[in-house]
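Task 17 of the worksheet. Students: predict the tertiary structure of the chain below and write it out as structure tokens. Keep your answer in the requested format; marks are given for formatting as well as content.
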Amino acid sequence: MANKLISVRTVVAVGIGSALVFVLMRFVALPTGVPNTNLNLGIAVLSVFAAIFGPIAGLLIGFIAHTLTDLTFGFGVWWTWVIADAFYGFVIGLFWKLYRVETGGLGVRQAVIFNVVQLLTNAVAWIAIAPSLDILVYQEPADKVYLQGLVSSVLNAAVVLILGTLLLVGYSRTRVKAGSLKAE
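Model answer:
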């Protein structure tokens, strides 16, 4: 059988992950005081799904959930931030084998790797990509969009550090550790 680019399991994960992230981004977002910038719990779920299902799932969940969120807010889709969310999900997913979540091997070392990756990726996505694209595409004022990006980066990193790590640890504990089953 030929290798598939995306499995049925991953397609289902994309659907469920997109729905969960959308609901959290749309209905559980808390305003920060910075215009159009919210505390977003959906980023933790995106991170967990990307860490479990890989880069394609992370990219698609970030893209779909953010697009749906923007469409339902009624102010149009901010493609620059959709791209940043998709990039974030993709990069978190690139390192999914290092986290060892599926094998029940998520320990302190893997949690540290996960959080170093998410901290760096949050910084790149929200401090570099989204604001820079806002300036290039929408001619937004630099001070405004870089402030939004900085606040988003810090808040997203904190949410993933706390909630995302707890979700990953909890999920990993439900998985059977590789080599733990012995024949009698």
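Marker's comment: Residues 10-96+104-174 form a domain with the Arp2/3 complex 21 kDa subunit ARPC3 fold (CATH 1.10.1760.20). The longest helix spans residues 142-174.
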